[in-house]
Amino acid sequence: MAMNSRKITCHMKTHEHLYPFIHALKDNGVYIIKLSPNKTGATFTIYEKDLAIVRRIRKKYKLPIHFTRPDANHIIHFHWSMLLGLLGFIIIPYICSLFLWQISIDDLSDERKVRLEQELHDLKVDERKMLTSLVSDADIRQVLLANNHDLSWIHIKRTGSKMNITSVPAPIVIREKIDNQVPSNLVALRRGVITHYDLRSGERLVPLNQTVKNGDMLVTGVLKQGKKYLLVGAEGQVFADFWLETSFEIPTKIVYDKFISKQVKIFQVQSPWKKFKKEPSKDHLVKLIQSVFEIEHHTIVEKSTVTVNEQWIKEAFLPMLRMRTASSLSPKGKIKDEKILHMTWSNDTVKGKVLYYMNDNIAGKRPIHQGD
């Protein structure tokens, strides 16, 4: 073996038992390499496997011997205590890496942050849980988006035993395209039933629960004071219930990347060990130690195909369509109800229409001209 083929140099001072000692070594099968007598004694080299025999015979002849290793600068000797300590430094971090230790949520709203934490708890995504027992990122994202219509996306980043969730609010749709400095009335941009007002100025013209159609004036910016009229301009929002029809077209088969598992590779030492065994140098030892401490995480995915059916459309597709529709609403708008009008199936596509019952601002500005 490589360990037994290593050499040790023995340095001996002149002694009356020097040569009987050398003969005793040969009689006991010790292979002596390069015996060099000199004025102060003798020097010879042996294999490390014979070191115990040399020490035993040395004690018999009571000879002082100094041992050195020719390759002492390149050899590191391993002991059981060192190996156990090394394994401890490897195994303990590895075991810890199998658990989720920290969950952080980045959200602009403290109220929504608390709600997201509770929804994660309902999904059993908690700290100090094994990573293999957690649901996939896709399932987490789907549930959070389905329960929070004011979000357009959820970023999930896993770094070792940490999980960071960042919410992306839905974009705010700015409907007012007219210069705010121009006094205006507020008119209906679509048909709906008035539910409530949120005005900063102006006078209501339509009572609550009344149906209006596109173009009807909702709030006037001209106020009457006695026999005079004061031009102040109407500012604010008018909310109404209305129906919105949305069409969709999707293929009957959808190909996507499906999460299979996560692999953790440790002790990738086979190749570095072969190099170190062949040439036990410091460079090879450093690479060997580095390979022992390296932990590689690999995500295994495979192509999967979903055949679209009515159940998949209701459970997976409609929540995504609802989120996209909700992102077009104002911050105070909401979807109250939805229903599928119809679906048409062909060989490779599915076409359908969904009707949403919504509440949102329907008011837009119309400039006040002289004579109005």
Characterise this structure:
It holds the Pfam family YqfD. This is Sporulation protein YqfD. The chain crosses the membrane at residues 83-103. Keywords: Membrane, Transmembrane, Transmembrane helix. The chain is of the alpha+beta class and 372 residues long. Among the domains are: 7-68, 2-Layer Sandwich (Alpha-Beta Plaits), CATH 3.30.70; 99-169, Ubiquitin-like (UB roll) (Roll), CATH 3.10.20; 184-236, no CATH class; 255-305, no CATH class. 27% of the residues lie in helices and 41% in strands. It has 8 helices and 22 strands. It has helices at residues 18-27, 51-61, 80-96, 110-122, 137-147, 270-278, 282-293, 310-326, and strands spanning 7-13, 33-37, 41-47, 65-68, 99-100, 102-106, 129-130, 151-159, 162-169, 184-188, 192-201, 203-204, 211-212, 217-220, 222-225, 228-231, 235-251, 253-265, 296-307, 334-345, 349-361, 363-367. Strand 8 and strand 9 form a beta hairpin. The longest helix is centred in the first third of the chain and has 17 residues, at 80-96. The chain is rod-shaped. Mean pLDDT is 81; it is low at 73-77 and 174-179.
